[in-house]
Amino acid sequence: MKIAIGGDHAAIELKSDIKNYLTSLGHTVEDIGSYSEASTDYPLYAKEVAERIQSNKVESGILICGTGIGMSIAANKFEGIRAAAVADPYSAMSAKKHNNANVLCFGARVVGVELAKMLVDAYLNAKYEGGRHQTRIDQITSFEK
Q1: Is the pTM of this model over 0.90?
Q2: From CA 27, how far away is CA 70, in angstroms rounded?
Q3: What would the pLDDT profile of 78-102 be if each residue is shown by its tens digit?
Q4: Which of 9, 27, 65, 105 is catalytic?
Q5: Number of compact structural domains in the chain
């Protein structure tokens, strides 16, 4: 799978660890920054990842900031993006199975590297169930128009 990953200054180390983890699993990872611990604005990275998904340059995205909340709010402003801020594997799995999330968000100040790997695994190994969930996705999509 081709995945775009982005993070702000709070996420430099965790983003690098997750990028390496994804690569070790055989995924192609496009790192869109940040590359420095200098203060930066997380919405810029959410925009870059969202636009790559919209243009089909990548299949999925991972965004990391201090809590994951700001990234998910920013990414969800883009049509067709369903970003979920999660801090436990069950929520990461459900985000994909029930909400067909295409962006996984979490916080570098909330989860450690091993839990972050579990979140990534739960999300990437889950399959969207469709069915009754599609009705809800269609309702959400109608709000974007």
Answers
A1: yes
A2: 26
A3: 999 999 999 999 999 999 999 999 9
A4: 65
A5: 1
